[in-house]
Amino acid sequence: MLPSNSWAWYEPRFGFPIFKGVRTLVSFSVRPDYQPLQLRRMHLGLVTAARRGPAELIRFGRERLDLALFCRSRSLRFRLLLLTRCGRYLATHRYDDAVPPGGSIDVDVDAARKARDLPDDDMMGILVMTNGRHDAFRSSPGSYSMTYVGDTTYSTYRTGGFARLLNERNRKKHYGFRGINPKIIVDDIYTSSILLINHSSDPAYDEAAAPQCVLLREDGESIEAPFGTIPAFGGLERSMEDLFGGRAQELLAAAGGRGTTVITCPGVTLASLHLVRRRDGASMAIEHSRPTHTYLLHGVPV
Amino acid sequence: MELLGIMGRPEAVAGLVNMPHASPYVVNGFVPTVTFAAHDGEFESTACVYNYFSDLFPERRSGATAHVWAFDATGECLGHVSDRLPFQGQTRIGCERFGKHFFGAIAVSLIPDEPPEKRPAGVGTGYYVQYRDGAGHIDHSHEWDPMRFKPMQSVPWLCVVRPRLASTRLVVLNSYFGDDPAAGRSLFAIRLRNHRGEIVASHDSLSIPIRGCWKGDLAEIFSELPRLADQEPLAVDVSGENVMGPFTVTRGPGGDFNVHHFC
Fold it and tell me: What chain B residue is nearest to A298 in terms of C-alpha separation?
């Protein structure tokens, strides 16, 4: 559970891991064509709210009032929340500069950590921005880059910031999480891991998640293990060895060390990151996963 | 099962049709999704594909076929390879299978043996690409944009670069995979913006062949980069006609590298 004022419902945010001994740089660029609020589109969602009943209709009205009152500025401000990997709140670091469309912010997470007298440790960060795109499902007015720099490693992944309903049981029911990673390598040179984040749009969220992981070889042979318990707002990284011990490398040896994981967790949604590291520390790769079923739901242009 | 649950809702399936398409890359509405790939002596790229229809429709126990095409920087299609995947099957398709060195793009389409009857007119494919260099550094990225067959004006793609920390190359792919040269023309501009969003340098009128790609080293494109680096954070802004979200290929101070699209 986080402080209730951690963010307002309309403030997009993004949670990411911080690794001990690795410099973490997070940037956000605001698209030059960003429009904070399109008044002519404020009615969108009214029919859906009305269909859901009076309570949702009242909520719709309140939210539109919030947008009209607080979401008019074209410039964004940012603040960084620092948490333990278990999701325990540690500190908030605010950035004074207002970032206009076309502008960027570049955050050195280590500097923020040191400014708050926090030790170098595996942690979680949540970067919150004051406004987003309320005319679009994504709610993201630009893109985040998370860059991890070690003595010998360098890796980046990028994604948007979102203000969607996540893991709020009383407002949205999730069927469950299914994360597929077909780029697992476990051999003498490389090892793979998965980092799952139990996020929510509600700072009061306090439910733990307990996913299950299957490691599949190309001929269909598989092994299965509990992933472990992830507290609310926590992040848990498990390597294939953490999950399966020496059985992971044994299983995949017949397939050149290659395999696929399928992780499931009913009733919640999770964020997932895929990592590959050289065992000698010379390289690290990190990337977020993408849900494949959305291609069958939303389609692509033809 | 989740998919079936959602597709069972009338509002979710409204407008779903089977639409024939003239492109040789599109089969039964399955539109290949494209991303950067290279097999050029510096990078080896491998498409990693899992038959996720096994999890979406487990009761069908359906197989699928992964189709992969490769395109070089001029837009020439270097060929097509395919792998058959059984129920819960997986494959890695290395770009060496195309038999030529190239720097450009791959496009992947995973087509199930029994395509769902109700589906959108265009269905993309989710997959990942793993990149390795000669020194054994490794990186990976998810698929990016579907092939486009109509001209489009790109959104202004923007992301931060740190020239004092790492060297960055830009790779820009033409999003158009149709046959009309006029419709597939791609002109684009690269701009550098300071943290306030002001444009501090720009290069205009760059072009990419249909299905092709453009690449350039940021330090070579902008000779003033060392001076501008004092104004960090700097952001690169790429926009134009038929421009897919660009990629950065960045080499860090310790020798490790990263490939990622703008977002």
Answer: B120
Do the Cβ atoms of A32 and B156 come within 8 Å? yes
Residues of chain B with CATH 2.60.290: 157-261
Helical (H) or strand (E) element with A66: helix A54-70
Record the pTM: 0.93
DSSP character for A61? Answer: H
A289 touches chain B (CB under 8 A): yes
Instruction: Report yes or no for ipTM above 0.90.
Output: yes
CB within 8 Å: B137 and A105: no
For residue A26, which of A118, A116, A152, A124 has the smallest C-alpha distance? A124
Q: What is the CATH number of domain B157-261?
A: 2.60.290
| Cα–Cα nearest to B215, from B133, B117, B106, B102 | B102
Q: Is B13 on the interface with A (CB under 8 A)?
A: no
Q: Measure CB to CB from residue B195 to each of A33, A104, A297 and give the nearest one.
A: A104
CA distance A276 to chain B (A): 8
Q: How far is B102 from chain A (nearest CA, A)?
A: 22
Token output for A26: 């997070």
Q: How far apart are the two ends of chain B, measured CA to CA in Å?
A: 30
Q: What's the CA gap between B206 and B238, in Å, rounded? A: 11
Q: Which sign does the torsion angle of CA A76, A149, B105, A215 carry?
A: negative
CA distances, B245 to each of A72, B172, B194, B240, B258 (Å): 28, 7, 20, 11, 16
Q: Of the candidates B160, B251, B261, which has its C-beta nearest A104's C-beta?
A: B160
Q: What single letter denotes the amino acid at residue A177?
A: F
**Exposure letters B18-28 (e unless 16+ CB within 10 A, then b):** eeebeeebbbe
Compute φ and ψ for A252, nearest 5 degrees.
-85, -10
* Secondary structure of residue A247 in the 3-state scheme: helix
- Please list the pLDDT of chain A residue by residue as tens digits (302 residues): 899 999 999 999 999 999 999 999 999 999 998 888 877 778 888 888 899 899 889 988 998 888 888 888 899 999 999 999 999 999 999 999 999 999 999 999 999 999 999 999 999 999 999 988 877 665 788 889 999 999 999 999 999 888 888 999 888 778 899 999 999 999 999 999 999 999 999 999 999 999 999 999 999 999 999 999 999 999 999 999 999 999 999 999 999 999 999 999 999 999 999 999 999 999 999 999 988 888 888 889 88
Whose tokens are 């945010």? That residue is A13
CA distance B30 to chain A (A): 9
Q: How many CA atoms lie within 13 A of B242 on its CB side?
A: 28
Q: In 10 A of CB B65, how many CB atoms?
A: 18
B89 has a chain A CB within 8 A of its CB: yes
**Which residues are registered as beta bridge partners of A193?**
A239, A275
CB contacts, 8 Å: A220 with chain B: 86-89
- Minimal CA separation from B122 to chain A, in Å: 5
A189, A220, A258: residue with CB nearest B88: A220
CB-based contact, A188 to chain B, within 8 Å: no
